[in-house]
Amino acid sequence: MGDRLSVALVTFGCQMNRSRSEHILHLFLQDGFSEAQEEEEADVLVFNTCAVREHAVARAVGVITHLYHAALRRRGQPPCVVLCGCMSELLREELLVRLPCVRVLTGTHNIEELPSLVREAYATGERKVVFSPPSPHFTERGYRRKGKVSAYLPIAFGCDNFCSYCVVPYTTGPQRSKPHDVILEELDEVVREGFREVILLGQNVNSYGRDLGNPRAFESLLEDIERRFGGEKIWVRFITSHPRDMRREIVEIVRGSRVLCPYFHLPLQAGSDRILALMNRGYTQKEYLRIASFIRGRIPEAVIGTDIIVGFPTESEDDFAETLRVVQEVQFEIAYTYVYSPRPRTKAAQLNDDVPQEVKKERLQVLNDRLREAYLRRLCVHEGRVTEVLLLEEDGELVARTRENLRVFLEGGENLRAGSFLEVCLARNPQGKCVGIPVLCQDGGES
Fold this sequence. Notes:
It is built from 13 helices and 19 strands. It is an alpha/beta fold. It folds into 4 domains: 125 residues, 3-Layer(aba) Sandwich (Rossmann fold), CATH 3.40.50; 127 residues, Transcription Regulator spoIIAA, CATH 3.30.750; 92 residues, Transcription Regulator spoIIAA; 56 residues, CATH 2.40.50. A 6-stranded parallel β-sheet has the order 2-1-3-4-5-6, sandwiched between helices. α8 packs parallel to α9 and α11 runs parallel beside α12. It is globular.
């Protein structure tokens, strides 16, 4: 085995996984590995996986198999395949049968050990399978790639909600919150390193600190962020929030802040009270609409995002109509929609998955159409507004986002680069996209 094994990471799933992948890469580089230029050339292929839906598992298995064989053809010898993350934690040894190419298998609680496990696998030729219980404390730091504009900063890990359809509490363990002062220290580093945007992460970010015995910990954190960084040119947003924990004081703090961004991601999941109860979501349609209405009233330009599941067991046409009613009323600017699939170990998996697949697909199409119609109506609020956008590079292309997280397609502008702030006038083009017409270019940051 050479001294400089190369490693490549492939990430599936949420922003927390993307953040943890940065941490995993940092661990490997710190241990003497190099970063492969291409996945097919890597000695070590690390897959940080997701298990929130069956589709995510099927996709991951397909990608892992494809990249393994592509690397084998390119290199002439098999790469060391490493699986970690939620899919590993949920399915465990089952994956060794489905994916015989796997050499190292761990869950969500062993990422600090990955470099040493890989070296042991190389030295012994044996498979390494290691699963540990959750640590009682969350101390994992956010590591950031130089040259990037946005930085993830995990503030809590794990979930106590046990929504009936969701595997996250089983794969991440109970919520553990990072100490308040440590978060502020990390945010100090982000500012010094020149990042323009930081995203505070948690599976249920607005319940931050509940495990520390402080029901107002999230509000205190936001207040301290504003006091400490209010004069800095940086945007701070947070995801994902649970509607039940979106207290009015949080909205008021964001409303009066110079750095906290008025983007609220509030997963609805369903609009029917009956289905919400079966999902164990902890709120009613009326309660959800009350907080959405409060946000719209206090911060008219705020953007509200959501997640919605169609086809949950026993969902009737009347239940689905209630979901459409909420879409009509809230007019979400951002939405992620899914067809229900039963997940192992969850309470909903014990229910009869009785909504036919073709009905689920039809409802998904109807839902997406209604979301699109509502989004176009909502754009009228933003049209004509002169606002600042942050330029970012995504998949090799320059894109723009407003402070409220509204994606904007630029029309015109010269010598633009990622990390720059640009003043634009928002408009809507004939295709219904939100476009930004540059008004005044301000000095930007590093690209």
